[in-house]
Specification:
With 125 residues, the protein is mostly beta strands. Helices cover 4% and strands 57% of the residues. The chain is built from 1 helix and 11 strands, in the order E-E-E-E-E-E-E-E-H-E-E-E. 31% of the residues are buried.
Length: 125
């Protein structure tokens, strides 16, 4: 099942899935194990099924490493790995119901937290 959908795609923005790199457009589904990538002029935003929002700025790459949202079965989890670039994350129901199940990985980063909104800038190694 899809983890969510692209809500905003501008400039150079793509979803890497199984060796394919289709352009990202609003309405395109995002799945666990997808890599979201933007170029120098790119922006990309995805709304996940639990109402979490992931937004990437230019020259960013993020892997959606885990997504589980089945509250009735107590299956909750969100994992993302920001390789480089800028990520704005606004938490949704997974963070509200099981905050310990949300994982944000970066190489080295600067993190700003304000309530349920996290802004991360990660430099490429």
């Amino acid at each position: 099942a899809a983890a969510g959908r692209v809500t905003i795609a501008a400039g150079s923005a793509a979803i890497v899935r199984g060796g394919q790199t289709p352009a990202a457009r609003p309405g395109v589904e995002a799945f666990e194990a997808d890599v979201l990538r933007t170029g120098a002029d790119g922006r990309l935003s995805v709304m996940l099924k639990d109402e979490s929002r992931l937004a990437l700025g230019p020259m960013s790459e993020l892997a959606l490493t885990r997504f589980a949202y089945a509250p009735n079965d107590e299956q909750l989890g969100l994992g993302v790995r920001l390789a480089h670039g800028v990520l704005s994350y606004v938490s949704g129901l997974i963070a509200k119901l099981a905050p310990e199940s949300v994982r944000l990985q970066t190489p080295t980063s600067i993190i700003g937290v304000r309530g349920t909104h996290v802004l991360v800038k990660a430099e490429a190694p």
